[in-house]
Amino acid sequence: MSVIDQLFAQPIAPSLKNLILGFGAIVVGLILKYLITVLFKLFARFWASFQIRSILRHLSHPIGFLIPLLFLNIAIGFMLLDQPFKLHFRKFLEICLTINFAVILVSAIKVVEDFVTYKFDFNKEDNLRERKIRTQLQFLRKILVATIIIVSGAIVLLSFESMRKIGAGLLTGVGIGGIIIGFAAQKSLSNLLAGFQIAFTQPIRIDDVVIVEGEWGKIEEITLTYVVVNIWDQRRLILPITYFIEKPFQNWTRVSSQLLGTVFLYLDYTVPIPPLRDELTRLLSENPLWDKRVNVVQVTDNKELNLEVRFLMSAKNSSQAFDLRCYVRENMIAFINNNYPDSLPKTRLEHKDTPPNFS
Question: Which domains does the chain have, with CATH numbers?
């Protein structure tokens, strides 16, 4: 007599016994999952709370399915089922466990990504090292997730006898098929290799400031096949990943986020330069966007009608440099207009009175 029969003090119907075993396995699994969750919350007192929150957020639901499925898989061995049905049911559970395990692996990768993102502060001013690691991590995550999905799908398909027969039949045409697939996948493989090159040589990184196709923007996302550039006016420029291997582009934050900003003014030859230097120093000293590295006023060219005066300043990053340039341009024009209005650009016309000729 089984344990269940002993509990009920008399033999019970096989269908009811199966129902009790299946329901009991699921309940025990849910209880165990709940206890594990409570245990992790208790550990939060000794571990960093961020790690616990990340684990619970990503792994709570997959583990919540895994444990009941494991207990149900064990309970099948004690159920009174027809052998063909038991085999099909066990195969169904094995497929569910395979899919669930794949989801757990993907979720674990997300936990690792959260930990690395938390450890390397991405929001600080000089985040060159952090952006480098973030770019590599994002690319590796996509590769690992794609590999897990492909392997899991292959395991599920190979669990069916009909699929194995189809695969054996396809292998007879592998020679011709391989050539066709090679030509068809040539572009995809090129993108994949370009992605590896970008991830590890890093001509671009996440949040790099770039000039591409005449547009100023930041690298927002790097995928296996394309790159998303967030343009300054919130448009998105989508480029194939091979673009950044094959074509020239400007990367303003390749070595450092610090940048020089320039303002060009075209003024009359009568403009005095020393007061402009003093005014630029005053403007920069009052503005927190200036990082106190560069403060220069130079006459960089003289044209037929005016002088080209360059105001050079520095800032911590490209966004601050742009705002600082606008600030200096606006206030310098106002200063010249108020103090040296005759030095603004003008077109001269000389008129001489010629005495009349009465001869």
Answer: 3-119 (no CATH), 132-255 (2.30.30.60), 259-343 (3.30.70.100)
**What amino acid is encoded at 228 in this protein?**
V
CA distance to 154, 220, 291, 292, per residue, from 258 (Å): 49, 19, 9, 11
Question: Contact at 8 Å (CB) between 72 and 93?
Answer: yes
Query: Which helix (H) or strand (E) segment is 157 a member of?
Result: helix 128-158
Band (pLDDT 50/70/90 cuts) for residue 330 is very high
- 61 pLDDT more than 50: yes
Going by pLDDT thresholds of 50, 70 and 90, the confidence category of residue 167 is very low
Other C-beta atoms within 10 Å of 359: how many?
3
Q: What is the DSSP letter of 343?
A: G
The token duo for 115 is: 């930990």
DSSP secondary structure letters along 268-279 = -TT--HHHHHHH
Q: DSSP string spanning 39-78?
A: HHHHHTTTS-HHHHHHHHHHHHHHHHHHHHHHHHHHHHTT
SS3 content of the chain, % helix, strand, coil (to 5): 60, 15, 25
Nearest to 283 by CA among 333, 347, 221: 333
269-285 pLDDT tens trace: 889 999 999 999 999 99
The predicted structure's pLDDT at residue 165: 57
